[in-house]
């Protein structure tokens, strides 16, 4: 079940950084990830690890070709860390 939530979190993060889906806003992404954290589906370190994996493979996620994706990931990571710290 843990793998399901990791894939779901990855999908939320990618949906936000790609910015293709109209409803994939920062608030939407943070809300989805916050819900997973509050319900114990994933730990903060799990979500940050997923983000680091995405950052570690810029060509796979086209972060190097679309700098706005990298910027959106940076913003999401910053806001998520703020939420985690409470």
In short, what is this structure?
72% of the residues lie in helices and 0% in strands.
Give the helices and strands as they follow along the chain. HHHH
Mean pLDDT: 93
Count of extended strands: 0
The secondary-structure class comes to mainly alpha
Compute the separation of the termini in Å.
Answer: 27 Å
What is the number of helices?
Answer: 4
Largest sheet: none
Residues in helix, %: over 70%
Strand content: under 5%
* Multimerization status: single chain
Which spans of ≥5 residues are poorly predicted at pLDDT below 50? none
Shape, per Cα inertia axes: globular
Radius of gyration: 12 Å
Please give a structural write-up.
- This protein has 86 residues and is mainly α.
- It has helices spanning 2-18, 26-38, 44-56, 67-85.
- It contains four helices and no strands.
- Helix 2 packs across helix 4 (67-85).
- The radius of gyration is 12 Å and the shape is globular.
- The N and C termini lie far apart (27 Å).
